[in-house]
Amino acid sequence: MDLTKLGFIVLACTSALAVYSYWGDASSVAFVLLGDTALVLLFLCLREGWEDNIIKAAVWALTTVLMAMFASRVAPLMSPAVAADVWAMAAAAAAEGFWALFMYLNR
Fold it and tell me: Which residues cross the membrane (predicted)?
């Protein structure tokens, strides 16, 4: 068994446990399922290569969604100043990813 398959098995098991644990909380279950879906789609896109701009756009969109999802869960746990920093770092990373994928690589 290769490492990728093992990783997806671990992801499936931990996600199943999380869904079971949070079954009464619809937002937490949706977070787990959306995060898993985005991760699987991201890995599928990464297998396709970087030549196609549609693949680059999908990779950028999926990583931006994942960053926003995680920032939305972490920021409320922090003080307002640190929460603003969390959102600022997520926005900066999304902007830098856009620049790297679409502006720098297309020179």
Answer: 28-46, 58-75, 87-105
